[in-house]
Amino acid sequence: MLQSHIIKIIEEKFSRKPPLTPPYQGRGIHLKDGSGDLKLAQDDIKIVVIGTGIAASVFTRHILTLASKENMNVKIIQIGHSSCNYCGGLMTNLASTTLKNLLNLDIPIDVELSKINRCIFINSYGGFEVALNAPLISMLRTSKFGEQGFDDSLRKKILEGLDKEAHKYLSIIDPATVTKIEPLGSKRNKVYYTIKKADKEIDADVVVIATGLRSLENTMMQKFSKDRGCIPPTMMDSCVTEIDTSKAIYDNLEHKTVIIDGVIKDCVVGIVSKRKGWITVTALNKVLTLEDLEHLFKHPSVKKYIDLPSVNKNLRCGIICEAKVFTAAAKNFYGDGWVIIGDLTGYGRILKDGYFAALMGAYYAANTIIHHGISKKAFEKHYHNKLKHFEFDNRIGMLLFDSNRRLKILPLSSKLFLQAGIFEEKSGYAGFIHAGIRAIITGELSYKIITSFFIFGWLKYLLTKSINFWRKGFNVEK
User: Fold this and answer.
1) Is the pLDDT of residue 20 over 60?
2) Which of 6, 94, 122, 222 has a CA-to-CA distance to 162 between 20 and 30 Å?
3) pTM for the whole thing?
4) Alpha-carbon span 192 to 173, nearest angstrom
C-alpha cells in the first residue's frame, strides 16, 4: 500500500537519531580557538554542580569521562538532596538509546516497571488503538512505593565503568541545600549551602545549575536569576498522580499508554500503565481536581477500557501533585563561569520526552567546558547553538496544541478526527492519523511532520467518505 510505504520512509528518514560519541583521537580533534591554535580549556578547574537529578548526573559522568581522556585535573563537587520528583516517568526508545550511546549505560532492570507497546487515543466520542514502533519503558523518576526510581539509580551509577582515576575527582555533598551563589574576583563564584544545620561555602570556577523547574519557586534561584539576568522559560500548568487500580472491575490498560483529549475541558490527560493494577495520570494545561478525576473515569469513552469505582479513594499518595512543563525557552541561561542545564533551559521537545532533552543538554554543556572553556561566548557558540534546533519546531508544537484546544468548540472536528482514526485501524500500523499519534508518544518526529500527518489523515478520510458517498448515490460499482 502506497500510504504505508510513504509513512515508513518518513519515519525512517526523518526520525531523530540518538547521537553517537565520535571515536576518541586525542587532543588533535579539538576545534581551533580565536588564535588558530588547537587547545583545550584550562587544565585545572573546579566545578560545582547543583542538583541530583538526571541532568546533573549525566553532566557529571560525561565531564569526568572527558577529563579522564584528556588527562585534565577537574574537581567536581555535586551538591543537592533527594526529593520526591514527579512520578510520571516514561522513557522513549530514543532516550534509552541515547543514554547507551553517550554514557554507555543501560536502563537498570530494577527501574523498569513495564514496557508500553500500544497507545490508546480517546476523546468524548470514543477511542482507537495505535501500535508503537518500539516499546517505551514505564518507570518512576525517584524511588517510591518500594520501587527504585531512574534518577536515583543513575546518580548511583555516575562512576560505573569509569577509570579509577575519575573517582578521586568527584565529591558528593548530599543532603544539602544551596542558599546563595555570588560572583567573586579571582574565583568566579562562591556557593553557600547548608548541611546538617551548618552553614558552609565553597569557591568554584564554574557553577552548573540543574535543579529543575520546581526550584524557580525557591529564594536561591529567584535571587540568582535576578542577579544574572536570567529569564526562566514560559510554563504551563500540569499535574500528576498515581492510582491503585487493583480493585477495578476490569482494566484493559496493562502495557498501554492513553491520550485523553477534551474529556476534561481545555485539558489533555495522559495515563501510563506501571505494574498490573497501577497507573499514572498526568494532565497538561490544568491541575486536576478530585472531581475532574471522578468525571474522567466515569466517562463512557474511558470506561470502555477501565472501570474503577471510587477513584479518589485509590490515589497512592492521597494527593494530586501540581507540576509545570515548559512551553518556550529561557533566556540568558548562561554566562561567564555559570550555566543552567536541564528543564530550566526550556530547550528540548515541549510537552514530551524530558529525558532526551536532559541527556543532550548535559552532554553539550560538558563538552563546552572541557573543549572550549567556561566563558559566556563559549557557552553561546557550543552549548546554546546546539539546543536551538528545537526552538522553531516547539512553536509549531504549541500552535498544534492550542489549535486542537480551540477546535473543541466545534464538536464535528473531534468526531471526524475519531472517525478517521477508527477508519485507519483497518490498515493497522500505517495510517497518517496513527502515525501522528505514535510520533507524539515516541518523540522521534518533529511537530511539523506530526501536523502534516494529521492534516493528510483528515483529508484522506474526508476524501474517501466523499467518494464512497458519490458511488452510493450514483450506484457506481466499487
Assistant:
1) yes
2) 94
3) 0.91
4) 12
Tracing cell 578521586 back to the chain, one arrives at 168
Is the pLDDT confidence value at 39 over 70?
A: no
Using CB atoms within 10 Å of the CB of residue 2, give its burial: 0 to 12 exposed, 13 to 18 middle, 19+ buried.
Answer: exposed
β partners of residue 335: 338
Q: Is 159 left (phi over 0), alpha (psi -120 to 50) or beta?
A: alpha
Report in angstroms the alpha-carbon separations of 134 from 92, 100, 438.
8, 16, 10
Across residues 448-466, what is the average pLDDT? 92
Q: Do residues 166 and 63 make contact, with C-beta atoms less than 8 angstroms apart? A: no
What gap in Å lies between CA 394 and CA 406, rounded to an integer? 18
Residues in CB range of 75: below 8 A, 6 or more apart: 45, 46, 47, 169, 171
Describe the crossing of helices 432-442 and 447-473 by its angle, rounded to 10 degrees: 160
The alpha carbon of 55 is separated from its chain's Cα centroid by a whole number of angstroms, namely 11
List the grid coordinates of 61: 559522568
